[in-house]
Structures are given as C-alpha cells and as structure tokens.
# Entry
Amino acid sequence: MIWKIARSRVVLFVWGGIYFVLFLWTYARHIAPYFGHQGFVYLPSATRNICIGLFVMLPLLWMPLRITRPSVLALWILYFLVYTPAIVVGFHVLELEFPFPRFFVWLCASMLFLSFLPLLPPIRFPRVVIPRKYLLWGLVGIWVWGYGLFLKAFGLRHIPALPDIYQVRLMARTIVSSEGGLFGYLLRWFANVFNPFFMALGIRKSCILILAMGIVGQVLIFSFDATKSTLMSIPYLLALYIVFKWKKWSPPAVFLFQGAIALFLGALLVDSIFHSYLVRMYLLRRVFYVPGLLTAFYYDYFSVHSQWQWAHTLVGRYLDLVPPEDALINAPGFIIGAVYFHKAEGNANANLWADAFANFGEVGIVLVTLVLFFLLWLYDSLSRDQERSTAFLLMGMPVFALTNTSLLTALLTHGWIPALLLLWIWPPPRRERISARNTPK
# Structure
C-alpha cells in the first residue's frame, strides 16, 4: 500500500513537472511577448525559475492524489488557476528572487492547510423534506420568472462579437445598476447555480428539456452581460462531467495535469494553424495568467499602501467603516485598474487571497483560508448523500468565481450561499424514492 501511494506521488510529480515547464515556457514565449502592454513580464533568470519551480512543485508533496470530494476539486482548481499563476507570473512581474516576500509563503501555507480537508469527515445535517417533483416545478417556475425579468430589462439580444464584449459589459453594468435591488444577484445566481444545476440534473436524468434550460440559460446571460466565464461554463461543466463519469467519480489528480497539458498544446496548435492569437488571449491568458498578474499588482500596491478592511463592501457600509486616507478611488479593484491599467472605470477584481491581502494584509490571507476551509467542509457535508454529478457540477462555477473575486463577494454574489441552500433542500437519491412514495397521487 505504501509503495503504491509512493508510486502515485512520483507519477504526480512527473506530470506536475511537465505541466510546470509547459506553463513557464508558454508564459515566456506566447504570453509575455504578446501581452507585455498589459503588464506581463518575463525576465530570464535561472535562480528565479528555480525558486518558482520549488514553490509550484512543493504542494504536490501533500495535495490529495484522488479527487474524492467536491472540496478536493476546489483545492485543485485553486492550485491551477490561482496558486501556480500567482507564483510564476508574480515572481517575474515583481522581479523576485531569493529572499522573497512572505506573501508567497502564506499562499503555500494556505494550500497546505486546505489539503487537510479530506481528513475531516463530513457530517449529516437534518434536511428539509420536500417532494422532489414539487421542488423541481418550483425551480422551473423561478427560472421562468427570472428570465422574464432579464428579458424585460435587457431585451432579446444576439451573442456579442469579441470586439464588442467590453462595450456590452459596460452597458450591462448600467442596466443592472438602474434595476437595483436583487437584480444583479439574480443574474449571477442563475449563471453560477441554477443553470449548472439544470445541466447536471438534465444529464443525470437524460432529460433533454432540463439540460437545454441550463445551456440556453447560459447563452442568454452571455448575450446580456458578455461575461465570458458564463459561456465557457458550458464546455467546462460538460468536460467535468465526462471526466468524472469516466473515472467513476474519483479521478486521479494526475489526470488534471494531463488534461491541462492537452488544453495548452491544443490552444497553441489552433493558434498556429490559423495564424491567430485569439485562443491564447481569451483562454490561456485570461483563465491561467491574468489571475497571477493581478495577484502581483495587488501585492505590489497594497504592500506599501493602506489596507481597506472591507470598507468598500456591504459589511463595511453596514458598520460605517471608512476607506483609507490614501485611497484614490472607492474600491481596491478600481484602484488597481486605474494605477496599473490606466482605466479609471475598469474594476480589476482579483482572487480571494489577493483581495484578502488588499483588505487585511497577511492576516487576511490566514482568515480567508480558515473561512474557506469551513465553507468547503460544509459543502462536503451537505453533498455527502447527493448524486456525485450534482455535487461536483454545482461546485464548478462558485469555486471558479474565487479565481476572480473575493470570498465575501463569492458568498453573496456568485452563488455559494444559493448552492449550499440548494444542496440542503434537494432530496438525495434515497430520499427521492421515499418522497415519491409519500406524494399523494
């Protein structure tokens, strides 16, 4: 048994090393040279790249070898889309070598602490007993009502072309602000929770209508606000389902490295064939490298300026917290947009740990990691009796939101709370059969 685990760990290291070399090479050859005007920098240095390699590979000593719980999937997504980009891009943009700031040590320590999640057993919470068919009709009714509101506000639109995305996004921001109330929250809850849930349920039950509701719903939201993650969620969630179904819902982590390597090589091959840079720009750059760039900018600015302590959030406004005296604009994301991208109207929102540093410094990283640990354990507990397809696919978008926004915003805006509520009230398979027997004919 020990030899089998050791062999699996060695295989993980090998594939992790191949992925790291490809990630660094892609950054040096295909990202920094083409997008240097956005702040990407590659500075050749053997010492720097060795430090980067050690930081990137170190978590592979302890991270779970198999994805057996939704929390483990979340941990690996954070490794691929937050931790690795922050180390690789951050060290080059900030021109770091040894000694390096403690900020990156805290990131590594956060990955270590979250890796203890599989050792904490989930518990079974009491559930609300609602017959499945009544609950399903209620969710369909909410879906119809929600899209009635969206269509009334936005109108029926065509899918925006790539050059028009940012203009459509600014127009959507104006419409959402004018609608007020819960409108903006509903838009994100539908994109991150309700539509993925319908996709998971439609696949599981082989119901084309329910699956179509989820897919069409995502396309409509993309036509409203041009958030690329909403459109990309369709192949992203379908790919998650195929991989997990193929590997009997506990795929080895090494499979994620193999998939990421195939994705990088495929993207570069497509761009090479068509003499384009669009796949690199909208897939590799935006998903894999921008989170690292923003982490570097957040550290660079807020390591020498005052932290915000949530003064710009709903919590801050409720507690009458005052923004820092040296604040240029009314939120950290807008400050980074103005200082580093020279766009006063651009909100350069960053991942959960970068935002935590902007608000509370290194203490913020620790606090956010503790809260995330509890949140993921709660998700595991509420999903322990659910169909694994529902549990894993419903996790996909809320955890992806953590790569681009704060934990507090993800809880309130990007669907973590609705996802947890849906897991709690949706009857697990055994209870579905019981409620079906008890439902009056």
The CA atoms of residues 71 and 435 lie 29 Å apart. Residues 2-31 form the longest helix (30 residues). Residues 2-122+253-303 form one domain. The chain has a mean pLDDT of 89.
